[in-house]
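Lesson 9: reading folded outputs for more than one chain in a single document. The general rule is that every protein is listed as its sequence immediately followed by its structure tokens, and records are never interleaved. Here is the first one.
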Amino acid sequence: MNATAQNRRLPALDALRGGALVAMFAYHLTWDFAHFGIIDAAAPYAPAMRLFSHAIASAFLFIAGAALVLASRPFRARAYLRRLALIAGAAALVTLASAYFSPDAIITFGILHCIAAASVLALPFLFLRWPAAALAAIFAAALPQFVASAAFDGRALDWLGLYAHEPRAMDFRPLLPWAAPLLAGVAAFRSPLAPRMETALARMRGTGAPARVLRWMGRHSLAVYLVHQPVFIALLTGYVALAGAPRAGDETPFLTACAARCVEGGQTAAACARGCACIARDMKRLNLWDKLLVDRLDDIERAILARVAQDCAAR
């Protein structure tokens, strides 16, 4: 993600990338808090959080496209390949780490994988006029809306984004439509407006500590990205060890088991999380939550649970 050549670096662009990292920290912490039972396990699946994640990914990809243009003045094949290898290697590390820590939710094509693949896709547009990149961005964003086939289902091809059934995966950013923000960044910084944008960015020189921290994070964004989750998990593990695990009546064990059964039935992880959270909420409202947790529902109460599950699925 840190692509700007040293002699073409815009400190403000680094700061913007650092700001995107801070937003990403907030989003990932929501998942971590839910995993450790500190907040509602359904919170990361809320529509607002999904929109937040899309905004963060779009920002990273747009900045990556802009940085790709700046780093190509002049274009050096060795520097381009070195950057690509760094990002692809980091993406491979993310996949391996997710396979070890969360084998049921392996990250096969996350944001780093997408940046690497989209950087290859964007290569010819570094030498074409800017409208070509703009049209390619529009095409990349629109194609999945009109082309979807079961032939693209499955891990071998779902990364293209033309699948008929959305795969169940964590941090999944398929090439289409997610190459669009990167191509848009290429188009913007090769357009006639590029000199004005670069001049405006060059004049933005924050001198305070927050600005310096953001610039530092932006310059070292790839390393920061790789280490932030292990640091968060270590800190939260220590917190839980000191403060104690969530109380026995917490929703997390139920939601985890409920969602696992639901996913096995063929539903998406997001839909399962929402449905299971709905069941927990309604069973609490009916004063049957405590009996549900210890599996002491009688026949009538089990019939009520079945009806609640049907209603939540319908919602």
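And here is the second record, again sequence then tokens.
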Amino acid sequence: MSNKKEIIVVGASGATGSLLVAELLNRGHRVQAIVRSPERFPEAIRKHENLSLIHASVLNLSDTELAKHVKNCDAIASCLGHNMSFKGIFGAPHRLVTDATRRLCVAIKANESDTPIKFVLMNTTGNSNRDLNEPVSFAQRCVIGLLRLLLPPHVDNENAADYLRTEIGQKDGAIEWTAVRPDGLTNEDTVTAYELHPSPIRSAIFDAGKTSRINVGHFMADLITEDEVWNNWKGQMPVIYNKSIV
């Protein structure tokens, strides 16, 4: 196994974030989880010796506090998302994922680390990687256009990934990044076979696939802890699907 790493996870008490935290702890790494609701963690995880809980919203921490938490970490993972309720979709903060991504990147740069810090963002197949000019049908473009107008969380996810693509880019000396794009998320109890692609192989709107949250957590943990996996996908937006069983 890789050497023990220091990892910060935001959105750690969510459905996918908690699975990522459990996977990282099972691999023997140290995790700082920035969470608003620590009680949502199962007790076995909450009391794990390698887990430190920071009871706060990442958007409410001061720049100084955030830089202090980020200092000496090897990687940051963001599993932040909007609750699928009326308030979660249409209420503030509209730029939760984008602002958290930006603030965490600023905190990384403030510490002037000698080696690049990994940033792993959970995103969505509904967001295209415009570095690759991915083909999108006219019908899907129309639906995505409506989503941009009607659903603030979609724009937030797009802007967060675009911040990494355009503001951090491929040659930043302080930060290396990957944005993971699952398709339709499902709940499963165990990790199963999954496949990875640089771009979607099916329409996220009209022919969506399935990706279990536990597989997303497993892949994000691989990105953080396995150098070969990281070197294969850094600076990209890999799409993850559950592998079909024939």
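What the second record shows: Residues 6-242 form a domain with the Rossmann fold fold (CATH 3.40.50.720).
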